[in-house]
Design brief:
single chain; Neuraminidase; 2 domains; 4-stranded antiparallel sheet; 2 helices
């Protein structure tokens, strides 16, 4: 009897050892040490972005008055916002994966999509006809919701991460594992061209290019902001680079970690000098994630203002609260935190 028990015990121990070994191999057990190798990033041909003419911020005071809060009643998990052609604000709500339109007083106007349509939406834009385009990173497609209530789906050549509309051209920022960062499409969903080769070995280290794009309708182009790189780049619709400059923060070049030879990750605690972008008239508004005392975080209160024509820094003011995204319009500023969007009137004093 004891021999049988001993044999069964040895069998159980052997099975457990095999299971533990397989668990480490396929990732069930995650407390094992990882081998991380630092991979330095470099701009193509050594062409670094131009430095700002000044390295010191010029501060202006701004006054704010809170007008409305988009809170848990209509918006539970705001993930991305954009102002399109009016004072209304469009917000991607991750609680139900819908793009919602709100009036400046906080009232819900309409919603695009329905539960189950999207799996991982990351960007959206209204085209020249008022149709809403929403890109889904996981499903690798774009859903187009037409003003007449119909819907269609298109399959892009490369997975789309962000998008804006310039007239009848949709400009997209693709996922960060390609050698070119941007692509343009016509309203039928056909790709027109691709451009944006910034880094050496970009397809391998492109995750440091994470950031956003904003439409420069007046000049028929886009402006790109690099979240970790701390750069601003302006491009026309043909892909010609108008300028590439550093932000006023002038952060060090970010480092990519190669984890166990199979996964890439931005080194922890990397500065985020560009959290969001918006354009008003001739000024580009950039929300910085670097605070006045030099500390860094996932939210910011400094709004840096640049000349959108050449990328030169102009002045800065401080928001009334920390934000992960802030959009400036002629009458309002919309401030998004991780849980709500607030609407403010503001006045910048010269």
């Amino acid at each position: 009897m004891f021999k049988i028990l001993r044999r069964d015990l040895l069998f159980i121990v052997a099975v457990a050892a095999v299971f533990l070994s397989l668990s480490y191999a396929i990732g069930f057990v995650t407390d094992r040490s990882t081998n991380a190798v630092e991979m330095e990033t470099a701009f193509r041909n050594g062409q670094r972005p131009a430095a700002q003419p000044t390295t010191a911020r010029v501060w202006r005071k701004a006054s704010f008055e809170k007008l409305a809060v988009l809170n848990s009643r209509s918006l539970k998990d705001p993930a991305k916002m954009q102002v399109e052609n009016s004072a209304d604000i469009f917000v991607l709500d991750w609680s139900d994966l819908l793009v919602k339109e709100f009036s400046p007083d906080g009232k819900l106007v309409r919603a695009f999509g329905k539960e189950g349509v999207f799996a991982n939406p990351t960007g959206f834009a209204l085209d020249s006809g008022g149709n809403m385009w929403v890109c889904d990173l996981k499903l690798d497609r774009v859903g187009i919701f037409n003003v007449d209530g119909s819907k269609r789906l298109i399959k892009p050549i490369d997975s789309i991460y962000r998008m804006v509309a310039i007239g009848d051209v949709m400009v997209t920022m693709v996922t960060l594992d390609h050698s070119r960062l941007f692509a343009t499409y016509d309203l039928a969903g056909h790709q027109l061209n691709s451009f944006g080769e910034l880094l050496e070995d970009q397809s391998d280290k492109g995750l440091v290019l994470d950031g956003d794009i904003v439409a420069d309708a007046e000049n028929r182009g886009i402006i790109y902001g690099g979240r970790y790189l701390g750069i601003l780049g302006s491009y026309d619709l043909e892909g010609k680079q108008r300028y590439l400059v550093q932000t006023i923060d002038s952060v060090p070049q970010p480092t990519v970690l190669n984890i166990d030879g199979r996964m890439r990750k931005v080194k922890p605690n990397t500065a985020r000098p560009v959290l969001s972008l918006s354009i008003l008239d001739n000024e580009l508004y950039v929300l910085s994630g670097v605070s006045p005392d030099g500390t860094e975080g996932s939210a910011g209160k400094i709004m840096d203002v640049y000349n959108k024509q050449d990328g030169h820094y102009l002045y800065s003011w401080e928001l009334p609260l920390g934000a992960v995204e802030a959009t400036v319009t002629s009458n309002y500023i919309y401030i998004r935190s991780n849980r709500e969007v607030t609407v403010w009137s503001f006045k910048s004093n010269t």
